[in-house]
Specification:
Layout (H helix, E strand, L loop, with lengths): L9 H9 L5 H7 L5 H10 L2 E4 L4 E4 L1 H9 L7 H10 L6 H7 L5 H10 L2 E4 L4 E4 L25 H4 L2 H9 L1 H9 L25 H14 L3 H15 L3 H9 L2
Antiparallel strand pairs: 1-2, 3-4
Helix pairs in contact: 2-3, 6-7, 12-13
Length: 249
């Protein structure tokens, strides 16, 4: 899972310091923002999010990390009982295996591996197996910097109109690439028709982040899923149908 490291520039450090004794609204006003959304947008670009409970900015990656840190989160009952048993001082693997109904501690280890857990010698306990990322060093080509009076190569001049277009639309490009709205507003759609129950299976982490987002932003999980599906269907082939549905309300 990719984690974006927080960027601590001078402005970020100042905002973090101000938030120790000011509200988000007052800090934004002090920094000449129109409202807190402008400051919030800046902090998101620096990979921070606003913790509504503690009323402070924290690294964005900590939300996923906080869920992933506890190996017992959403684990099977037997897995939880094994991990809990190893949290006791002087835990005996053979005794724990016997109490959990295994032939021996090796059979217990095989079971835990099958459930996605491995032994950590530093923690003296089982931890969730996390997939490894093959990180390759990114090769960044050297930028071409023309000297005074020197013309740009034709191969570069050809793309200047497109580069200008991207610059003029930089806010839209940022939203597209980062998935973050600059205004901080959450889209809500009033959809006509009856409501029905639909059970679906989804990635465990996505499900938990959806629940966390629902609590933090005071929006129902149904509204989150409906808004996501509306925008997904619009983007991938059902634009006319979705627009007709929204207009029929």
């Amino acid at each position: 899972m990719e984690e974006r490291e927080p960027i601590y520039d001078k402005k970020v450090i100042k905002i973090l310091d101000m938030m120790k004794y000011m509200t988000r609204e007052d800090a934004a006003k002090e920094l000449k923002y129109k409202d807190w959304r402008g400051m919030d947008s800046y902090m998101r670009r620096k990979n921070f999010r606003f913790d509504s409970i503690n009323q402070e900015y924290v690294p964005a990656a900590t939300k996923v990390n906080s869920i992933m840190k506890d190996p017992k989160s959403y684990a099977p009952v037997k897995v939880v009982s094994i991990i809990t048993a190893f949290e006791e001082p002087n835990a005996d693997p053979r005794l724990i295996a016997k109490q959990a109904g295994f032939k021996d501690h090796k059979a217990m280890a095989d079971y835990m591996k099958e459930k996605g857990y491995e032994w950590n010698v530093y923690k003296n306990n089982y931890v969730k197996i996390v997939g490894e990322l093959n990180e390759e060093e990114e090769v960044i080509p050297e930028a071409f910097t023309p000297t005074a009076g020197e013309k740009l190569p034709e191969s570069v001049e050809e793309y200047l109109p497109f580069i200008r277009f991207l610059y003029e639309k930089r806010d839209d490009v940022y939203q597209l690439l980062s998935g973050t709205r600059e205004d901080g507003k959450i889209p809500r759609y009033a959809l006509p028709g009856m409501v029905r129950t639909k059970a679906i299976y989804m990635n465990d982490m996505i499900a938990r982040l959806t629940a966390e987002f629902s609590r933090e932003k005071n929006v129902t999980q149904r509204e989150i899923v409906e808004a996501a599906l509306v925008e997904y269907l619009q983007k991938y082939g059902y634009k006319v149908e979705i627009e007709a549905l929204l207009k029929s309300n």
